């Protein structure tokens, strides 16, 4: 068990007092988060490593590193090739929901105007990838992190780039 008061590094060689009731996620260098927690952070557009927001420069531009913990999202050249797969899955979900609803409604014997639904489905297929693109990127990065924890070199690099910028998130 942790003592009530402990010292923690800020990554820059300095230490500060941290009281025992400091929420886990606002500590400077969170370690050992459960894979589900890491993936959830990505799904909600946050850094998989520390949970910080503010990881996007704009809607389409994920920053190279988390402004808070220094985690490099694209860990090696080409590491983001799976983003399209996640984005495709995001786009497919509402489409499948619509089709499922259509099949169930038709099976129940109700009349359905199919044409407007097809137009809605086509619109979804066009719009969803744009809407979900940033989340696909942060989700892919967090999936990568959940499956492959940072090696010591990456940890050290992240520490070098870590700042206290970025927003603390309670969860
Ligand atoms: Zn971070």
List the helices and strands and how they pair.
Layout: E1 5-9, E2 15-19, H1 35-43, H2 83-107, H3 114-147, H4 152-161
This protein binds zinc ion.
Description:
With 171 residues, the protein is mainly α. The chain has one domain (5-168). The protein is 46% helix and 6% strand. It contains four helices and two strands. The protein has helices at 35-43, 83-107, 114-147, 152-161; strands at residues 5-9, 15-19. A two-stranded antiparallel sheet has the order 1-2. Helix 1 (35-43) packs across helix 3 and helix 2 (83-107) packs antiparallel against helix 3. The longest helix has 34 residues, at 114-147. The radius of gyration is 21 Å and the shape is elongated. Zinc ion (ZN) binds at residues 47, 49-50, 52, 66, 68-69, 71.
Descriptive terms for the model:
about 170 residues; disordered N terminus; two-stranded antiparallel sheet; binds zinc ion; mainly alpha; 4 helices
Bound molecules: zinc ion
- CA radius of gyration: 21 Å
Helical fraction = 40-55%
Supply the helix-strand structural class.
mainly alpha
Mean pLDDT across all residues, rounded? 81
Give the overall form: elongated
Oligomer: single chain
Query: Could you give the distance between the termini?
Result: 21 Å
Q: What portion of the residues fall into strands of 2 or more residues?
A: 5-15%
**Topology order in helix (H) and strand (E) letters:** EEHHHH
Our count of domains comes out at 1
């Amino acid at each position: 068990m942790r003592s009530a008061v402990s010292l923690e590094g800020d990554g820059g060689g300095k230490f500060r007092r941290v009281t025992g009731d400091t929420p886990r996620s606002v500590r400077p260098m969170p370690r050992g988060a459960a894979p589900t927690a890491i993936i959830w952070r990505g799904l909600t557009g946050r850094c998989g490593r520390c949970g910080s927001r503010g990881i996007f420069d704009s809607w389409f531009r994920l920053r190279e590193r988390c402004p808070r913990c220094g985690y490099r999202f694209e860990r090696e050249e080409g590491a983001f090739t799976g983003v399209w797969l996640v984005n495709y899955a995001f786009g497919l979900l509402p489409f499948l929901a619509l089709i499922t609803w259509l099949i169930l409604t038709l099976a129940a014997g109700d009349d359905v105007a199919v044409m407007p639904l097809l137009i809605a489905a086509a619109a979804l297929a066009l719009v969803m990838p744009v809407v979900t693109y940033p989340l696909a990127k942060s989700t892919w990065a967090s999936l990568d992190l959940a499956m492959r924890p940072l090696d010591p070199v990456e940890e050290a690099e992240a520490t070098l780039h870590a700042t206290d910028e970025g927003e603390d998130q309670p969860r």
